[in-house]
Amino acid sequence: MPKLKTKSGAKKRFGLTASGKVKRNWGHKRHLLINKSKQGKRLRRGTTTLEKGDAGLVQTYMPYMRG
């Protein structure tokens, strides 16, 4: 059986939490920050987890992340 390829864009953007959920970074934090609210910028610190349907899609891109 040949090795499966991982999407290189996905491996840079997603990871797994200890409980097996897919974690991601927030978007919209790179530029034009003066136009964004202070609360919006504050809420986008750190990481968050994907919803179940989106997590399933990401796991098809990363076959060896399934464990």
Q: In the CATH classification, which architecture applies?
A: Irregular
Task: Give the radius of gyration.
Answer: 15 Å
> What value does the average pLDDT take?
93
Which sheet architecture does the biggest sheet show? 3 strands, antiparallel
* Unreliable parts: none
Shape: elongated
- Indicate how many domains the architecture comprises: 1
Question: Helix- and strand-based class?
Answer: alpha+beta
Key terms for this structure?
67 residues; alpha+beta; Factor Xa Inhibitor; 33% helix; 15% strand
Short summary of the structure?
This protein is α+β, with helices and mostly antiparallel strands. The protein has helices at about 10-15, 40-45, 50-60, and strands spanning about 15, 20-25, 45-50.
Describe this structure in words.
The structure is a single chain. This protein has 67 residues and is of the alpha+beta class. It has one domain: Factor Xa Inhibitor, CATH 4.10.410. The protein contains 3 helices and 3 strands, in the order αββαβα. Strands 1-2-3 form a 3-stranded antiparallel sheet. β1 and β2 form a beta hairpin. It starts with 7 loop residues before the first helix and ends in a 6-residue tail after the last helix.
Topology, pairings included?
Elements: H1 8-13, E1 14-16, E2 22-25, H2 38-43, E3 47-49, H3 52-61
